[in-house]
Amino acid sequence: MRRPLDDVRIVSLEQYGAGPFGSMHLAELGAEIIKIEDPTVGGDVGRTIPPYAEPGDSLFFQSFNRDKSSITLDVRTPGGRAVFHDLVRTADAVYSNLRGDVPAKLGIRYEDLRGINPRIVCCSLTGFGMTGPRSTEPGYDYVLQALGGWMSLTGEPGGAPQKTGLSLVDYCGGYVAAIALLGAIHGARRDGVGTDCDLSLYDTAVSLLTYPGTWHLTAGYEPARTRQSAHPSLVPFQAFEAADGWLVVGCAKEKFWQRLTVVLGRPELADDPRFATFADRAEHRDELLPLLEELIRTRTVADWLAPMYAAAIPCAPIRDVAGALTDPHTVERDLLAETDHAVFGAVRSLRSAVRVGPPGADRAPTRAAPAMGADTDRVLRELGYDDDAITALRDAGALGRD
Fold it and tell me: Which Pfam families match (predicted)?
């Protein structure tokens, strides 16, 4: 069965996490991702990330680069630049995640490439964008979580600022880039004219402030950390400690609160005027939450979950990574990928959450992330280069030296 993007070719100058994460979803949907790796620096730096790293590859790299092709190419050399332009002629998009001033230096913006392919989309996911006072600064997830206000919201009140457990600015930035790429490619095919996509991790982080940002800008709301990861306005909606662990309970609708009072054996709380509505419970949270916490500590997580599930109250045990990966729902939803690797053996990783097709449909096979330059000769031959031309490029350093 044809995949929805199997007629899309993207030439990618990507590295580390955010950029490769975004293009991997498109690869799973069938797009051809030709990953250009700079041979002068050992390729994508993700290949060296510890602790599970071997010469030229790592499990970090395998996590972000399945289903792609890799070529070595120094686009700053004359020969490398010529090959790059030949790739642009055959591609729908050039995708990169570099510092904001680097796309201009490398000549990978639309104004640089429109003469070669007027329909080319030039998508740049940078730390801070290609305009603005921070555009030349390097941007990494930790930095953006600090600047974007995230760390001020994460953690317990009175504690040190905290980042999220995962690099969510990077990953959300990758999703933003994937959406922009698809939109721009669609527009270029419709109109016959390409464009730039100037995306940034900074824009991503700030835009994801969402409703607290709206509340602040419109009504002067001052966001603050909440105890036990509580929702800022919906009470109760937070982590609770049981006798043997932790669980989350979320009363996002009034009916859930009313059901919870029954499960807790305190149905009279639903009629208490202090706790009758969202607004009442928020106003009197300092009276309500200690009472709920005391009740929930009297029984185990399993003892609470059974009646809560039966009452269709939003709830869950707080699991570790192993628990999430072995959940029967994870398996049933086909979220685990397994590929063969010459050094690491069977590599088990996570498939994309992006799906196209009927519920329960089999996924397309996936393949391991490529060795650096594994597809160089094949791609060049497809562009019309013969063995002599490839050897000349290699001798000139455009493809790296053995």
Answer: CoA_transf_3 (PF02515)
Tell me the two tokens of residue 263.
């499960």
pLDDT tens across 108-133, in order?
A: 999 999 999 999 999 999 999 999 99
Is residue 188 a contact partner of residue 194, using CB atoms and an 8 Å limit? yes
Nearest residue to 394 (alpha-carbon basis) of 83, 86, 33: 83
Which one-letter DSSP state was computed for residue 40? G
CA distance 90 to 35: 14
User: Any idea what the Cα angle at residue 70 is, between residues 65 and 73, rounded to 5°?
Assistant: 135
Q: Is residue 231 annotated as a catalytic residue, yes or no?
A: yes
| 183 CA to centre of own chain | 18
Give the model's pLDDT for residue 402. Answer: 62
| Residue 343 burial class via C-beta count within 10 angstroms: exposed 0-12, middle 13-18, buried 19 and up | exposed
Q: Record the tokens describing residue 186, joined without a space.
A: 């669609």
Angle CA 249–250–256, to nearest 5: 105
- Strand intervals (E) in 288-372: 315-317, 336-341, 345-350
Q: Which tokens hold the place of 288?
A: 């309500």
Q: What is the largest CA-CA distance in the chain?
A: 85
Which of 27, 11, 12, 26 has the alpha carbon at shortest distance from 91?
Answer: 11
Cβ atoms of 210 and 225 within 8 Å: the answer is no
Q: Report pLDDT for 360.
A: 85
Q: What is the DSSP letter of 6?
A: T
Cis peptide bond upstream of 236, omega within 30: yes
Chain-centre distance of CA 11, in angstroms?
Answer: 19
- For residue 51, cis peptide bond before it (omega within 30 degrees of 0): yes
Catalytic residue among 85, 216, 231, 341: 231
Per-residue buried b or exposed e for 46-65, using 16+ beta carbons within 10 Å of the residue's own CB = bbbbeeeeeeebbbbbbbbb
Distance CA 366, CA 363 (A): 9
Per-residue pLDDT tens over the stretch 95-104: 999 998 999 9
Rg (Cα) of the chain, in Å, rounded? 25
Q: Which of 336, 263, 259 has its CA nearest to residue 306?
A: 263
Asked if residue 89 lies in contact with residue 116, where contact means CB atoms within 8 angstroms, the answer is yes
Q: CA–CA separation, 249 vs 157, rounded Å?
A: 20
Q: Which residues of the chain have pLDDT under 70?
A: 402
Q: What is the pLDDT of residue 264?
A: 96
Terminal alpha carbon distance of the chain: 39
